[in-house]
């Protein structure tokens, strides 16, 4: 399932002023980017539980972003809670990117991959939510496989 036409239009409008001459959008999708350690999840849950006498449970999740893949770059826009695309968070040159370690995550409900940047030790974990998990393999196929 792709983005709604309204959200897609908003994302393309946010992207248009940043495109270089001759650059075109090839792929758009919402995703959660980054990872949260088990230690941080447990610590957050414990602190919130203690402060609220166990009546409230808190979870920590990776940041929701909108991915825009062009012929030259990967652009990441703020996508807090599925709202209108926000400001540009990160832009990475496409020739230096590769995708690997792809898998279905959380008993087949999500699709996750790791985007590696040449010269960097750690990659970015990108997880596509349930409604958009079919976009994951398309995103991975658009990037080269790491060597």
Structural write-up:
There is one protein chain. This protein is α+β, with helices and mostly antiparallel strands and 147 residues long. It has helices spanning 5-15, 38-51, 135-142, and strands at 25-33, 63-70, 73-78, 88-93, 97-105, 110-117, 124-128. The chain has a seven-stranded antiparallel β-sheet with strand order 4-3-2-1-7-6-5, with helices on both faces. Strand 5 and strand 6 form a beta hairpin. The longest helix has 14 residues, at 38-51. It is globular and about 60 Å long. It starts with a helix and ends in a 5-residue tail after the last helix.
Secondary-structure map:
Blueprint: H1 5-15, E1 25-33, H2 38-51, E2 63-70, E3 73-78, E4 88-93, E5 97-105, E6 110-117, E7 124-128, H3 135-142
Antiparallel strand pairs: 1-2, 1-7, 2-3, 3-4, 5-6, 6-7
What's a concise summary of this model?
Helices cover 22% and strands 35% of the residues. Strand 2 and strand 3 form a beta hairpin.
Rg, rounded, reads 17 Å
Terminal CA distance reads 31 Å
Question: Judging from the principal axes of the Cα atoms, what is the shape?
Answer: globular
Query: Could you state the order of secondary-structure elements as H and E?
Result: HEHEEEEEEH
What is the topology, as strand order, of the major beta sheet?
Answer: 4-3-2-1-7-6-5
Largest sheet: 7 strands, antiparallel
Helix- and strand-based class? alpha+beta
Number of strands: 7
Taking pLDDT < 50 over at least 5 consecutive residues as the criterion, the unreliable ranges are none
Strand residue content? 25-35%
Mean pLDDT: 82
- What share of the residues lie within helices? 10-25%
By DSSP (H or I, 4+ residues per run), the number of helices equals 3
């Amino acid at each position: 399932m792709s983005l709604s036409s309204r959200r897609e239009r908003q994302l393309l409008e946010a992207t248009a002023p940043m495109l270089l001459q001759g650059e075109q959008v090839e792929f758009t999708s919402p995703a959660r980017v980054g990872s949260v350690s088990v230690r941080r999840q447990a610590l957050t849950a414990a602190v919130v539980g203690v402060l609220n006498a166990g009546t409230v449970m808190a979870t920590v999740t990776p940041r929701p972003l909108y991915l825009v893949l062009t012929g030259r770059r990967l652009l990441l826009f703020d996508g807090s809670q599925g709202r209108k695309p926000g400001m540009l968070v990160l832009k990475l040159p496409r020739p230096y990117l590769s995708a690997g370690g792809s898998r279905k995550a959380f008993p087949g409900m999500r699709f996750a991959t790791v985007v590696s940047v040449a010269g960097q030790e750690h990659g970015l974990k990108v997880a596509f939510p349930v409604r958009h998990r079919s976009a994951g393999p398309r995103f991975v196929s658009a990037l080269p496989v790491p060597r």
